[in-house]
Amino acid sequence: MRNLLWTAIFALTVLAAVRAQEPTETFTSVADLQRALRLARPGSEYVLASGTYRQVSLFVDRSGKPEAPITIRAEEGGSVTFTEACTIDISASYVIFEGFRFADIPHPNILNLTAADRCRISHCAFINTGQGVKKHIVQFRAGANHNIFEFNYMEGNRSIGVSILVRPDQKGEGTVHNIIRRNYFRDIDRLSNNGQEPVQIGQQVYLDWQYAYSHTIVEENLFINCNGDREIVSSKSSGNLIRHNTIQDSWRGGIVLRAGNAARVEGNYLINTDVGIRAYGDGNVIVNNYIVDAKNGAILFPGGDYDAGEPSTRGYQRTLHSLIAHNTIVGGQGGAIVFGGLERPPQGLRVCNNLFINPSDPPFPYLQTAETTWQSNLLATNDETAQWQVPPSGIEIVPAPPPFESAVQRLRPDIADAVDTGLPLREAIRDIDGDPRDTRPDIGADERPTPRPRIPLAPSDVGPRWMRM
């Protein structure tokens, strides 16, 4: 009897596994693939044969399950090219879409997720796509939650690259908890004074939209030569996390908290950019960033022309109650931290444990206009002729190290005065490498010693696997 029971249990387990893993089907036409997708079942895998496909339209509204997603993929990574015209719409849950190449498509809205949940777009390439600098190439629309856009490649964008549309729809559904990670953005040329942001989180169209919490994570992406817009990562909603990205050789932009509140910008490398980080809004945290050779200021708080709750849709919300801590800023022009410039100067800022090495003079433009608390900061310089304009307390001027002999030294400067001289902060208990800080933390982004340094990302770390082989 016991053997019969175990036999029955085993048979049911096998049957469940078979149902969860439907057979793989391969198609040589998009029309046939679309017909099959209308009847897709959880666990199904659909493969499009290698080749070039023109005038493509696909709609996916059949959902998988957590243990049995629906997979739509190219026969080999990068072997399928969509060109001339292409629109992919996904309105389903647990769908994996991967391995496709989109090239020379002169229109926007190429890949859209609407009311999509827990889907993954990965290992795709978008080359010379889009049309209209304020349109979008990939868009997460209302009700698109908990999706992942990862290991993709974007080059030559003519529109906004990846956009999260943050607003409630008529059912009260937002667009929350999406992740953009390990993607490679490069060679985006300027086509207009405004538009072509590689990543945009939210749109400041109506006042309440910027206060909606998106909880988007933008992490471990590489941006090189991205010059379409001054906002390379543009946050226009609240509660977003921008961490461990590398932005390099992008002369026109930086990370911008354009609207919204309670963002966290952490552990990013910004090397040879226009600005490092520009911030507006209330309650932001900017910690553990390395900013090297910013051309027009490393961290900027321009102030604003309205405060939270006041009617405005196109202005700038004043910066309030924000923390700037454990950042390392090396060289650059235009100031290390820039305060003010707009009608209402920033207020309630706390500047702690930052390391400034050979900044431009003056290092803190408009300092007198801002209501700022300074604690345990270091300014390292050997320029004896500079008339340093510094706060009356909370910053110490010390000798700078000798000229850096390597890029590693420039990114990880060894300054004895920075060791064990910081102020403990609960908002920054770990450093840029993820190592814990002790009760006497080092000043700057790095807590010494550094057993596992997190270095700037390289092309071999990001993008589709088939482009890295």
Layout of helices and strands:
Blueprint: H1 2-20, E1 24-27, H2 30-37, E2 45-48, E3 51-60, E4 70-74, E5 80-90, E6 95-98, E7 100-105, E8 111-113, E9 120-122, E10 125-129, E11 136-140, E12 148-150, E13 153-155, E14 160-164, E15 179-181, E16 184-188, E17 199-201, E18 217-219, E19 222-226, E20 231-236, E21 241-243, E22 246-250, E23 254-259, E24 264-266, E25 269-273, E26 277-279, E27 285-287, E28 290-292, E29 299-301, E30 323-325, E31 328-330, E32 337-339, E33 347-352, E34 355-357, E35 371-375, E36 377-380, E37 395-398, H3 407-411, H4 465-468
Parallel strand pairs: 1-2, 2-4, 3-5, 4-6, 5-7, 5-8, 6-9, 7-10, 8-11, 9-12, 10-13, 11-14, 12-15, 13-16, 14-17, 15-18, 16-19, 17-20, 18-21, 19-22, 20-23, 21-24, 22-25, 23-26, 24-27, 25-28, 26-29, 27-30, 28-31, 29-32, 30-33, 31-34, 33-35, 34-36, 36-37
The portion of residues forming beta strands comes to: 25-35%
For the termini, the CA-CA separation is: 55 Å
What is the CATH third-level topology name of the largest domain? Pectate Lyase C-like
CATH A-level architecture of the largest domain: 3 Solenoid
CATH class of the largest domain: Mainly Beta
- Which structural class is indicated by helix and strand composition? mainly beta
Outline the low-pLDDT stretches.
Answer: 1-20
How many structural domains in the coordinates? 2
Largest sheet: 23 strands, parallel
